[in-house]
User: Which sequence fits this backbone?
């Protein structure tokens, strides 16, 4: 790398096996209308990371920045916090305002303008197909991918009284809640992690469901009453993983970030994302998936559900970790063969 001496891979972030765990268009900007000297950050003395402003997004971006500083001691890394439409519109579900791609668009535009060199995302929010010229050179070691049940009054989902109020705007979570407890009142819940917890604490809900990874990264793991985990409950594809996005044609950036990539995590999330891609899944459709290591193979479980009535189709398969794409397509085909297409077209 120009001007840098690479240090050994960060020993504090070992790869772990076990859980390994739509697109906003930029038509008209893909031809790079900005000068190359801005676009490429010539000299690479500083890497600028575009990030959302939420506490969790800032934590994730700072985590990537710390890993870069450890790998390249001479590198200066700075954050470029930005607000996205997905953060600003909180009175409607993501599905109603355009999907999770809204969390990426402004960050990608910043890279296209030359205001940032990369962006850091929760990988579950990244569309299955990226617009050119973007790529994902690094998927960092995955945190716990499970969902967490949070309540101030009840110890588990089963312990909730009839018609209890549960907060979540995720169609995937709604579908699984309907399947397990059709009596519950499911209410929308938007905002960052602290905002959602405050709404629970203010009495607006009897319980809420949030990702374990986000809570624990913010030091809020004590709020988790119970973990919702496979096989009864499946997370979003790639939940718990953090990814770096940059210009795929910039060889220096691609090489720089490749040092942060975790091969075990990438194998798992690529299988999950391949399944979702084959189903044309998005936040408009309740799709769940989790890949787990079994020796040298991956066991992929998938689900397509209905948020309106709790119907669900499940499928799973085991395949070589060296070919996660094929495994993902295999599970998607099983789901479609078993009737998932009816739920996807609702």
Assistant:
């Amino acid at each position: 790398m120009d001007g840098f001496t690479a240090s050994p891979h960060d020993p504090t972030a070992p790869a772990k096996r076990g859980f390994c765990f739509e697109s906003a268009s930029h038509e008209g900007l893909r031809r790079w209308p900005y000068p190359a000297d801005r676009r490429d950050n010539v000299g690479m003395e500083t890497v600028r990371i575009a990030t959302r402003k939420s506490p969790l997004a800032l934590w994730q971006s700072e985590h990537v920045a710390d890993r870069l500083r450890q790998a390249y001691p001479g590198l200066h890394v700075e954050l470029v916090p930005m607000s996205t439409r997905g953060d600003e519109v909180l009175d409607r579900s993501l599905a109603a305002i355009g999907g999770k791609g809204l969390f990426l668009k402004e960050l990608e535009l910043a890279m296209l303008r030359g205001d940032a060199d990369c962006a850091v995302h929760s990988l579950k929010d990244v569309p299955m197909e990226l617009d050119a010229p973007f790529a994902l050179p690094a998927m960092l070691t995955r945190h716990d991918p499970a969902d967490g049940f949070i309540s101030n009054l009840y110890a588990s989902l089963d312990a909730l009284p009839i018609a209890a109020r549960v907060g979540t705007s995720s169609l995937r979570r709604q579908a699984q809640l309907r399947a397990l407890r059709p009596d519950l009142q499911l209410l929308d819940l938007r905002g960052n992690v602290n905002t959602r917890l405050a709404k629970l604490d203010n009495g607006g809900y009897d319980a809420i469901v949030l990702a374990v990874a986000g809570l624990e990264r913010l030091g809020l793991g004590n709020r988790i009453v119970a973990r919702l985990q496979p096989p009864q409950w499946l997370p979003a594809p790639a939940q718990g993983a953090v990814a770096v996005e940059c210009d795929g044609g910039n060889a220096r950036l691609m090489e720089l970030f490749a040092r942060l990539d975790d091969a075990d995590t990438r194998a798992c999330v690529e299988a999950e994302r391949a399944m979702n891609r084959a189903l044309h899944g998005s936040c408009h459709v309740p799709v769940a998936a989790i890949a787990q290591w079994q020796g040298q193979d991956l066991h992929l479980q998938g689900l397509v559900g209905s948020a309106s009535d709790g119907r669900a189709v499940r499928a799973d398969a085991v395949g070589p970790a060296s070919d996660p794409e094929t495994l993902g397509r295999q599970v998607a085909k099983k789901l479609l063969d078993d009737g998932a297409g009816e739920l996807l077209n609702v």
Remarks:
- The CA atoms of residues 2 and 44 lie 7 Å apart.
- The first helix runs from residue 36 to 39.
- The first strand starts at residue 46 and ends at 52.
